[in-house]
Amino acid sequence: MRTFRFQVLQGILPVDSTQVSANIIAGITLAALAIPEVMGYTKISGTPVITGLYTLLIPMVLYALFGSSRHLVVGADSATAAIVASSIAGIAAPRSGEWLALAGLLALMAAGFLLLARIARLGFLSDFLSRTVLVGFLSGVGIQVAVGEIFGMLDLPDGEHLSTHTVAAVLREIERTNVASVMVAVSVLVVIIVSRWISKKIPGALIAVVGAIFVSWAFNLESYGVHVLGPIPSGLPRIGLPAVTISMSLVEKLIPTAFAMFIVILAQSAATSRAYAARYNERFDENVDLVGLCLANIGAGLSGTFVVNGSPTKTQMVESAGGHNQIAQLVTSFIVLIVLFFFTGSLAYLPGAVLSAVVFLIGVELIDIKGMKKIYAERPWEFWVALITAVVVVLVGVEQSILLAIVLSLVVHTRHGYLVNNMLIVPDKIQGWQQQPVSSRGQVVPGLMIYRFMHNMYYANSQVLNDEIVELARSADPPLSWFCIDATAVNDVDFTAAETLRTLHATLEAQGIRLVVCEIVAEVRDEFERSKLTDLFGREAFFQTPAAVVTAYGQHLVAH
């Protein structure tokens, strides 16, 4: 039986002393930006405003300690918040004690699914997200986030959470724009952009948020029609199980929702973690991440808040502020703790347009135009995969785009495996051997051809395997006596491919050609044994190297 152990501090160690100050600044910046943001998510989830702050406390600390990614930020997320609200809507009243208890129960149930996934070692599911779709995924999220904040920057009413049709809606409501709020939003954007132009080490977003709070308080911007966050209650969360009576009928109602949230958490967190790990050429362990995400949601369920998830926008906030590991997230949690004790009153003065401007800029930074251009230049076909992923994020939603991203990644993988660029091995006077295209029809020596298959043999490319070998044998000049498959690049042979090899053996044998194999790995040799191919080919038909095949073929000619 496979077991697992907790692995702690993978997202923190090793610590580079030269980056500590940058991580502290990034943590403070994240706190300044994420605190108002997560309070906004409570409007989606239907929970009290203070529960948004709780998502940045215990859940964030638990993931920082037990997660694997050095960059992923875990907290409230719009997608999972919306799922929570839609599932509880018919059971309890929004912002009631029962509603909050059910939200906490859902977080615990989602954690249960994450734990089961860890035990079953299902972290590999995130491997089905290619770098191509990750670029498209994050770019789509960036577009959705940026466009969705236009209403907030213009301080237009009834514009929350719009994205797909926001531009058209803005044009209809443009005459209702609050000029003062627009000036606040533009000022914030200028402060952030100019500070980064001067030096990326300057925490422009932090300066903008703190400055906006001070200006709002000093000049009473609310009297000019600028919307502010308003009063926020203080206090620490109560630790304990959700105050709800658990019954089988209730569990049956919530299981589909908990499973949907589990899928979103697994896919979106993995997508974000992989994107940043690839960006910094780092590795992360998907299964360790499942433990971190599981504990984070247990912490959420026990501390009176709703489900948490890996957040692309918050992760980008930390990176933009110079953060390099989970120390930044620990600093954020510490700042939230201080805020809960002493400063909830100050947040009441923060204009909503400030938050919208900051999140708008974060969304713009997520749009990876350079990455899309690079994909188009190097792999045009994959560019369309990335573009489709981005479009689905914008027009349909994050959850659906993640499922599509997995499907498209599989399509890309299947296409690469299907369109195999196989080679023929021929002698080279200097290097000993060289590869030539199949179209060259090159033979090692007259009557012997060595064909290197450049991928695993499976159902999608078995027809290519069959067609190329049959054509090579038919058109060989001089005619072949031996045909060798070089299996050095083959790590797996599925049932369909095994049947194809069995058919090829009969076809070549009917033409008087002996089929042999070289450089077969141990795992594939075992598969040949199980498929009875070893007995069919004959144990003497397997060779260690192409040179051994040439030697055996020479001995065969002498003997005959």
Could you please describe the fold and organization of this structure?
The structure is a single chain. The protein is elongated. The strands form 2 sheets. A 6-stranded mixed beta sheet has the order 4-3-5-6-7-8. It has a two-stranded antiparallel ribbon with strand order 1-2. The chain folds into 2 domains: 292 residues, no CATH class; 137 residues, 2-Layer Sandwich (Transcription Regulator spoIIAA), CATH 3.30.750. The N terminus is likely disordered. Helix content is 61%, strand content 6%. Helix 3 packs antiparallel against helix 12, helix 11 packs across helix 18 and helix 17 runs antiparallel to helix 18. It has 560 residues and is an alpha/beta fold.
